[in-house]
Specification:
The complex is a heterodimer of chains A (about 375) and B (about 300). By secondary structure, chain A is an alpha/beta fold. Chain A contains 15 helices and eight strands. A four-stranded parallel beta sheet of chain A has the order 2-1-3-4, sandwiched between helices. A four-stranded parallel beta sheet of chain A has the order 6-5-7-8, sandwiched between helices. By secondary structure, chain B is of the alpha/beta class. In chain B, strand 7, helix 13 and strand 8 form a beta-alpha-beta unit. Classes of the chains: A alpha/beta (about 375), B alpha/beta (about 300).
């Protein structure tokens, strides 16, 4: 079985999971204009943008020979939980007889869940499966820890692009060399030293600008989709942090509580309760919660990214002006779809950062 | 109690001006009605938080967050919003649990609240039964509340109209599509005329997993029910610009309509849609169906 998956964030992790279980993993190419055009062509016009981009990724992976897809499902109320079903139907009509495995909570349909787990397990023993799972879990945490170094130091790099190149290399190393937990620890140590050896020139504390990125998971995590927002912000001299890292997502959604290393979700949801009475799906409540959390942690501004016409994020977009006012934090919303171009947003982001600098200046003076 | 009037250009403009631009048209119009009522000087506006009316389903996120959205977008009106959670496992939402919190604001007498719920339930059941007998929402409403029964209509062509109640029966959004169809000599069948058991049957047959939005489920099931019902000649999907659930549901129905050999048309409407273009499209659709039906029966006669 040649299995592929949606391209989102640090894909090494999904690839390793499949490979260590003995499947052949086909990694779709990093989304480009071509991917998006392909996806848009075969998607409903008003589907949300991640659906279209992922559709394109699937079609490209099928060209590369994939005959099965693994993806996540869910029970809404956001549309993302239904992607798999509609993808399957559309791919079927296009004549691709492909097996789509949708991993979702076992609570609603245990039989289906079990069938998929069995398929993924293949001939491995259960012990091996659990071992692989924990190895990949370790990998996720390791990569995210390294990425956080990049997200901060890249803002002050002395040679432009040096950190991005290094991060690319680190990802490739993990991809090639990781077999066991031991490899992870070894490469982590070496990569950390390597990243820390790259020259950078830090600014004095009062001139540092810290931005939080919040929003819907796919557009926040996938840099090729979100205009490379982290790199752009770093390039403008700002440190960034995302509201979502894969390792934290695993901790909150898959890991049983007793094993989870980080547990942010509850705290964040509690923060959002001031504005929202119930959970309304997607990452809406997290978006609001994280904005408040970032403010409390002393961040200077928020970039809110959402796919065009995303159902839950539209509600947060309506609430955000109030949050921004109540907590006195500047927030800039970008809504992304296939028409989004970088140039106009760069100008706006630059203006946004100038505004933050100005604010800091006046605050320091008074 | 003051009810906001039928949607008008004025109300739409009110909503469009103050709502987030990417919202779907019905929610923008809702915002318009909300502001209209407040401008006419009411004390409270009733904005229910609809959560669920079927086990396991919820409403679209926009319904779930509606009171939050309004109270944070218009902080000056936040204390004028009268809200409560509607969270039920069946279609009949008239339970004490749902209405107690809001009833208490109006009266302290629980007995009175019980009575109000009871008489509302009676009306609701009457209304629902009329729908199942083939009355559409508006006709049933007229009969229950005003005692007006419509003229029985029987045309030679039956068209299934699928779309949410707040689209189909809002004359501004739908441009009165039901009446237009009637005038063209067709009967319009809508989703509320499909019985609950048929809905559930379609859902369990056609879907590996249910769609998680209540109304979408109903419309989806109604769509398949219409596809399979030989007395229905064509299906029109009426959807509003920016409707998230419909983007998926419409696609799936569109793909499958080919398998059932049923004519299927999507009409997407926003605040700028002109009426004449809609009329032309519907006319063409109805003509096409009529010709097709006429031709097949004609050739059948020749075959004899």
């Amino acid at each position: 079985m040649k299995i592929t998956f949606p391209y989102m964030g640090t894909v090494v992790i999904y690839k390793k999971l499949l490979e260590l279980l003995g499947h052949e993993a086909i990694c779709p190419p990093r989304p480009t204009r071509k991917t998006i055009d392909l996806g848009v062509k075969h998607s409903p016009e008003f589907a949300c943008f991640p659906y279209k981009a992922i559709m394109g990724s699937y079609l490209q992976a099928i060209e590369l020979g994939a005959d099965a897809i693994i993806t996540s499902g869910g029970f809404g109320p956001c549309r993302a939980g239904y992607y798999g079903e509609v993808h399957k139907k559309t791919l079927g009509k296009l004549g691709h007889n492909i097996d789509i495995m949708i991993l979702e909570s076992y609570k609603r349909n245990f039989k289906y869940f079990w069938r998929i787990v069995k398929k993924l397990k293949g001939k491995n023993s259960w012990r091996k499966v659990i071992q692989v799972f924990f190895t990949v879990y370790e990998l996720a945490h390791t990569l995210d820890a390294l990425e956080k170094i990049v997200q901060v130091r890249r803002a002050y790099e002395t040679e432009k692009g040096s950190f991005s190149r290094a991060w690319q290399k680190v990802n490739e190393r993990f991809d090639k060399e990781v077999k066991t937990k031991k490899d992870i620890h070894r490469i982590y140590k070496e990569s950390k030293e390597y990243l820390e050896s790259i020259p950078y020139k830090e600014k004095p504390e009062n001139e540092k600008i810290r931005l939080g990125i919040v929003g819907e998971i796919y557009v926040v995590m996938e840099s090729s989709i979100n205009l490379n927002i982290e790199e752009v912000l770093n390039g403008l001299g700002c440190e960034v942090e995302r509201n979502l890292y894969l390792s934290e997502w695993i901790d909150d959604n898959i890991m049983p509580k007793m094993f989870a290393r980080t547990s942010m979700q509850e705290k964040i949801l509690n923060l959002s309760r001031e504005y929202m009475e119930v959970r309304i799906g997607g990452h809406e409540n997290e978006t609001i919660g994280h904005i408040i959390d970032y403010k409390k942690r002393g961040f200077d501004g928020i970039i809110h990214i959402m796919p065009f016409a995303c159902l839950p994020e539209l509600i947060s977009q309506s609430i955000i002006p109030k949050v921004s006012k109540d907590y006195d934090i500047p927030i800039y919303t970008i809504s992304i779809d296939e028409q989004t171009a970088i140039a106009n947003h760069i100008t706006r982001i630059e203006a946004f950062i100038e505004l933050i600098k100005g604010r800091k200046g006046t605050q320091a003076l008074s | 109690m003051i009810e906001s009037p039928q949607t008008s250009k004025e109300i739409v403009d009110l909503g469009v001006k103050s709502a987030v631009p990417e919202l779907c048209v019905p929610v923008k119009i809702y915002v318009g009605h909300f502001l209209y009522l407040l401008q006419s000087g009411v004390d409270y506006v009733y904005v229910p938080r609809l959560i669920s009316i079927r086990k396991g389903d919820t409403f679209c996120p926009k319904f779930l967050g509606l009171p939050d959205m309004l109270s944070h977008q218009f902080p000056e009106y936040a204390d004028k919003i009268l809200t409560h959670q509607v969270n039920s496992r069946e279609e009949n939402i008239g339970t004490l649990q749902n209405y107690l919190s809001i009833g208490r604001i109006i009266t302290q007498n629980t007995q009175k609240i019980r009575q109000a719920i009871k008489s509302a339930n009676k009306k609701w059941i009457e209304f629902r039964n009329l729908c199942l007998d083939g009355y559409n929402c508006r006709e049933a409403e007229n009969k229950v509340f005003r005692g007006v029964s419509p003229k029985p209509s029987s045309h030679d062509i039956k068209i299934g109209v699928i779309g949410y109640v707040y689209n189909v029966y809002d004359n501004y959004i739908s441009m009165d599509i039901i009446n237009k169809l009637n005038k063209m000599g067709t009967d319009a069948v809508t989703f509320e005329m499909v019985s609950l058991s048929d809905t559930e049957k379609q859902l369990s047959e056609k879907l590996r997993k249910d769609i998680f939005w209540t109304f979408s489920n109903k419309i989806f099931a109604a769509g398949y029910h219409f596809f399979e019902d030989p007395s229905i000649d064509g299906v029109i999907h009426l959807t509003a610009f920016g409707c998230g659930p419909d983007s998926f549901l419409g696609k799936v129905l569109d793909l499958d309509s080919d398998d059932f050999k049923k004519p299927f048309m999507t009409v997407r409407i926003d605040e700028h849609t002109g009426e004449s273009h809609l009329v032309t499209r519907i006319e063409a659709f109805v003509d096409m169906i009529r010709r097709r039906k006429f031709k097949t029966s004609d050739s059948a006669e020749v075959g004899k």
